[in-house]
C-alpha cells in the first residue's frame, strides 16, 4: 500500500445509533476542533439506529463539526444495501467494511462514537509518509477476543500462530479502500453469498478479518502496516470508576494520544467522582465548555441510553413471541 505521493486527505467514517448520539456529538466537536480541514476530504456518519436520527439532531450534529460541516454526510444504513437480519453489533461490523463503497479517498479512518480527538492531528498521525497505516501488534493469547481472532484465522485457512503477533482490533482503525473492496469481493466470490450474509453465517469479526485477509494476501503486513500504534486510551464499562478514569487520562497524557475513548456503558455507570474528573478533562480539551455542560449532556445520554435498552427489550420479547 505504499505510494510515492505520500499521505493524502482522509475520510472519517463512524456509525451511530440512538444510545450513542451524545457521544457522537462530542466526536463531531473534537473533529471540528482538532482535525485540519486540509487533511479531511469528507466525514461519513452512518445512522444505524431505530428510529432514524431526527432532522433536528442531524442539524445539531452537522453544526458541531464546525469548519468540516460542509464535508459531512449523514446517511441511513440502507444506503449500504446491507439489510442484515441480526444484532446491531453484527450489522455495524459489516458496515465498517462495506463503507468502502461510499469512500472516495484511498484511505478511511474508522471511528466508534466513543472515540474523540483530544489534540490537533494531521494525516501523519494515522499514516506513515509512504502511505502505510499506523498500527501496533500484540499477542492475543490472553485477550478477550482470542476466540474471534482464531475463528477468522480458521475461516481463511491461516496458521493459528498468528495470534502471537496480531494487529489491534479497536478504533481508530485505518482502512485502505482498495483492500476493503477486494476483501468484500473475494468473500462473495469464494462463498457464493452476499458479503453481509456470509459474514453473519461464518460469525466473522471486522477488524480481525481485514488484517487476516491482508496476511493471507501478502504473507505479512509490511506492505500495508507500519508498527506504530495509534494511541486511544479508553474508559471501558468495566473500568467505570474514578481510578479507571484517572488511569485512562494518565495514559493519554503520557503517550500524547491523539484520541480518547469513553464507552457508553462507562458513561452510564460512572459515579459522581468519576464524572467530575472526566468532565474536567473534557473541559480542558475543549470538548465541552464547562463541567456543567458535560453534566447536562450526560443527562441527555442517560435518557437516550435508557430508551434504547427499553426498545431492545421490547424487540426481543416480540421476536420470542413469534418464534
Structural notes for this entry:
The chain is an alpha/beta fold and 323 residues long. It has a domain at 235-323. It is 45% helix and 14% strand. The chain has helices spanning 21-34, 55-64, 88-98, 146-155, 177-191, 195-201, 206-218, 242-255, 264-269, 272-284, 291-322; strands at residues 10-16, 40-47, 72-76, 107-112, 115-117, 133-135, 173-176, 225-227, 234-235, 259-262. The strands form three sheets. It has a five-stranded mixed sheet. Helix 8 (242-255) links the parallel strand 9 (234-235) and strand 10 (259-262). The longest helix is centred in the last third of the chain and has 32 residues, at 291-322. It starts with 9 loop residues before the first strand and ends with a helix.
Structural class: alpha/beta
Q: Can you summarize the main beta sheet? A: 5 strands, mixed
Low-confidence stretches: 1-5
Oligomer: single chain
Tell how many strands the DSSP assignment holds: 10
Rg over CA atoms, rounded to whole Å, is 19 Å
Tally of contiguous helical segments: 11
Mean pLDDT: 93
Strand content: 5-15%
Output the keywords.
alpha/beta, globular, 323 residues, 11 helices, 14% strand, five-stranded mixed beta sheet, single chain, disordered N terminus, three-stranded mixed beta sheet, 10 strands
Summarize the model shown.
The chain is an alpha/beta fold.
Topology (SSEs and partners):
Blueprint: E1 10-16, H1 21-34, E2 40-47, H2 55-64, E3 72-76, H3 88-98, E4 107-112, E5 115-117, E6 133-135, H4 146-155, E7 173-176, H5 177-191, H6 195-201, H7 206-218, E8 225-227, E9 234-235, H8 242-255, E10 259-262, H9 264-269, H10 272-284, H11 291-322
Parallel strand pairs: 1-2, 1-4, 2-3, 6-8, 9-10
Antiparallel strand pairs: 4-7, 5-10
Helix pairs in contact: 1-2, 8-10, 10-11
